[in-house]
Amino acid sequence: MRKRGNWQRALRVGGRALILVAFCTFTSFPFAWMLITAFKRNSDLYNPVNNPFWFNEPPTLEHLEYVFTKTLYANWIVNTALVGVVVVAITLLLALPAGYSLSRFLGPWGTQLGIGMFLVYLVPPTLLFIPLARVVSELRLHNTLWSLILIYPTITVPFATWLLMGFFKSIPPELEEQALVDGYSRLGAFWRVTLPLAVPGIIAVVIFSFTISAQEFVYALSFVTNVARKTVSVGVPADMVRGDIFDWGPLMASAFLASVPVAILYYFVIDKFVRGFTTAGAIR
Amino acid sequence: MRSSTAAVRPWVSFLTRGGRWLRRERVFAPLLVLPAFLYVVLLVGLPFLYALYLSLTDATTGNPYGSFIGLRNFSEVVQDRVFRTALKNTFVFTLSAQGAVILLSNVLARALSTEFRGKGFVLFLLLLPWVAPVSLSTIGWLWILHARFSVLDWVAWQLGLLPHGQNTFWLGKPNLAMFSVVMVHVWRMLPFATVVLLAGLTSLPRDLLDQAEVDGARFWRKLFQIELPLLLPIMSVAVLFGTIFTFTDMAVVYVLTRGGPFDTTQVLSSLAFFKGIVGGNLSVGAAISLFLFPVLLVAAVLILRAARRAEVT
Known about the structure:
The complex is a heterodimer. By secondary structure, chain A is mainly α. Chain A has helices at about 1-40, 40-45, 60-70, 75-105, 105-120, 125-140, 145-150, 155-170, 175-180, 185-195, 200-215, 220-225, 230-240, 250-265, 270-280; strands at about 240, 245. The longest helix of chain A has about 35 residues, at about 1-40. Mean pLDDT of chain A is about 85; it is low at about 280-284. In chain B, helix 4 (about 80-110) packs antiparallel against helix 10 (about 220-250) and helix 10 runs antiparallel to helix 14. The N and C termini of chain B lie far apart (about 70 Å).
């Protein structure tokens, strides 16, 4: 009896391990592939007889060197970071007061507005890029990073407001009221008591907004055509390919370099997003 | 000196009174929401209305104001063969990708639902596709599916599934290209659905499952009669989000196939982009993208209902 129990246990553990290994291979393979390709000599890369999974010739740094000296990659990274930082600032500036007010003061109205905000998050770029292209060209922002800085908060503000609304809801208003009794002003109570408690939510919003603007593709592709002003998610696919010529070494090196740091950032806040998503509508 | 303080005093009293007025909740609470609200109205609401208007004109980038032509764009678009392919593809992509995602994410979330050593690293590997910039990870796939140096072909050679040196041309044949785009979409959406389901699984009432076990319920019975019904609301949230993002995404199609070969993998959003932005035909592009809207509206309503039920359980 006991023996059979052990067998079943071993089978279950083994099966689980097998499933996880299979899935991990599926999800992370492209990134492993980027990494291998990034360090492979061209003569090794383009020889169909060679084992693609290993270095048949010694690894090389020539592709990385190419990326940083012969392309505008470093420039695109700086652009991406710049846009990201400004978008984060705008998002916090708009979403913090909105989320706070919606969760604390506006009662059922706040809930309705909050749901409205959340639905705006679902409006896809596809539906808006043509009218926004007009807006951008009327404002003479075409081909500038400002066009992206103007547009990206349309994605980040609604979701950030929604997320922060949930966080403020979870902080008991009594704490603030106590601070008011103690002689703080409304703003003082918010600043000293509520805001510090909402820090995890704020960090989630910062990372979310930053990664969204680093990843965004459609608007960046539509609004910025000047090579030097592109962000990395458009610069690499659009300008590191000359005609039909794909330089796979440099391409994979730059894709890997831009993907994995973003992933590491995201990893730390993943459970907060899940909470944000799964409690969508948690407020009646 | 004195006269200037006297002149200042009314302002000071106005400001402090204003301050008191501002301190009243009924006044400052809406004021706090206003900036975010205005932003959304100006850059989402109005552009959306503008898209509606554009679709009823013959505006192009050369003639951005155009003139009113009623529903002609829509009737022309519907008769276009490429548009009909794109419409069909959008649904095929979304439904098949989401079908696969539901199935796989259920298996995966279940395998992840217990604690084990190295779980953090496993989660990191599983999350990569969702959090990496899609245009860059899709380039990775472009290389994996390369016409001549595809690593998949190489593996197939070694396994004897394909004569050595012969290529599959993953992105060169309509059906295979379609399959490739669906596969990359599944790859990308799987992590999100899994994480949401995992959150659902861990919040299942433990005692209910224990009770079922005591009563002698076996794996399948427990799965179909207790766990899946309890998970259904949260699963539908994951699926609906995935559906919306797959339905409206063009990055994978754009990078992988540009809608080719011969427009066989074109979807509504990529077609709207090629006609509206690349081709400069603003009004037709707007009309095409508006075909997405009714489906999105239905999905949004369903999300809210599902989420509300998820909260109750």
